[in-house]
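[job 4417] fold queue: 2 targets
>>> target A
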Amino acid sequence: MLDKVRQEHIILGVDPGTLFMGYALLHTVGQQVEILEFGAYDVHKLEGQYPRLQKEFFFLQDLIDKYHPTSLAIETQFVDKNPQTMIKIVHAQGVAIAAALSKDVPIYEYSPMKIKMAITGNGHSTKQQVAGMLQRFMHIADEDMPKKLDATDALAIAYCHYLQLGMPVSEGGAKDWTTYAKRKGLTDKGLTGPNAQLLAALATVKKRK
């Protein structure tokens, strides 16, 4: 597992949407993580669902051609009370997956709860809490924070996948990386890089509560 995390990766994170699609690209080498680009792709002005999906498909293909990601991480298992909303989101998921498949990019799926647990330690965190945690441990300036939470959701998805490369939350039955760290006896002294930043950010949040 350590060999995986030491390797160079370019991770494309996608938060599927039919009006705004969140996307984020992370370049990682070992424990060094760099944000290449992230944002929310706006297709809401286009008329009709299918033209929007087509636009998203071509946009993702262009991103893949530009950055050559080694993996696509995508949010899945979306549930909504409105069946029509669910269907539209599933279509958007399918478009992102198809774009990756067309370019032979490996695909990894994560549930919303797993993503939130990986970033904040709480599977029921709000989108704002996830965005705030990402800003803290990735040192994103206020002026660089996007207005659309779709963008930070995509960044969370990409970072969640990065964490899985070095410390999978499924190992040993742990529900999130903080539980895993406790079981392994890891502390802030035993962690380095992004995992140390996560632990420090979580500690700060706990002190404020």
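>>> target B
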Amino acid sequence: MSFGTQDDSDEVMNEINMTPLVDVMLVLLIIFIITVPVMKHSVNVDLPRATNQPEKIQPETLRLSVAADGQYFWNGTPIGDEELLPRLQAEAGKDPQPDLHIRGDKAVRYERVAQAMAAAQRAGVRKIGFVTEPQP
């Protein structure tokens, strides 16, 4: 006695059996569910802290003094009027540009200090400051 016909046994099965694929996926899912919390409890290491802030380079300070007789002094060295503008132009071309501090004697004519300021402006110096003595 046979329960099927001969035609049924010769047919080719053209569907994929999904049961083993689902079983494998469920096993992988369970493995990942178990291992993820274990990976989060790793060894605690106190790592060093570092900053990536660029180092700020402080520009140098140039001291231009004007004596009572009108003589210019470049960082304490006497210079002539014709040397002032070329030196200021050379310093204005540096990066970072240095600060210029002008110290004028209280007995000097304002005209000499104004000439030094105008020369600094023509040279392209952007940071000019005046140095004064505090009152007693």
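[job 4417] complete. Note on B: The chain has a mean pLDDT of 85.
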